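RECORD TYPE: protein structure
NAME: DUF3592 domain-containing protein
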Amino acid sequence: MDETTGWSITGERGSLQQAIILPLGLGLAIFLFSSVPFLFAKGHALHDIFLGEPIIIASIATTLGMLFFFTLRGVRSRLIGGRSPKMFFFLMFGGYYLIGLFLFFGYSLDNHQLAVDLDAHGMMAQARLVRTFVEECGKNGCSTGIEYEFTPRGSNHLARGTANEGDPNRYPNPEYSYAVSTGTVPILYDPENPSRSMVYWNGNIHRQASWRSVMFSVTLLSGFLLIPMIGMGIPLWLIMGALTKYYATAQATGSTPS
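PREDICTED:
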């Protein structure tokens, strides 16, 4: 590096340091920004931030940012080597999409298995409503979560659970209204592991135990997965086109591309 060049925390353009530091900075900024509504929300608890939506959104943004820069580094290295980056581009994005689908399917399968187990041998209980809290926020409002606790049969220790009840201010939710008005939450829990529990309302667990529910969730999530992939892919494709022209011009004029 030239001695007159100032040191930068993000490193040189196209460097591995830049591909790591910039997405981490973006993720930290998003985490801090998305944490603000939780700090002032009714029923807020500190672990809602570190175990809830803010850390999830920040992690997704950081991951997408790293994928963006790592793909861009691969494109640049192929152009410098005189190779076409298009095949690399499509292979990388195909791999990202398949990995995302695999993770979504694993998440849906885990929820499905919990519903199957509870539907088969879960024990009913009337849990106590501990609190309601803001769980997810968007431009149309925030969804509400509930936290409940109960004492499993034959135990002296409390077990806890949470559930997302959507946005009861926009969409009437009898399940949420019942919990708030009575202070109780009907649940099914696993007698062998009481930490595994679900709200039990109008046969919802039986429906979630069906494979139809799993396939619906996977199909829905696979569609949602296309949104960030397209949002990341279009800018990369445009940048790749601009870089291709830049390196072709540099090669034609005999100059050394940076």
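COMMENT: Residues 1-5 have pLDDT under 50 and may be disordered.
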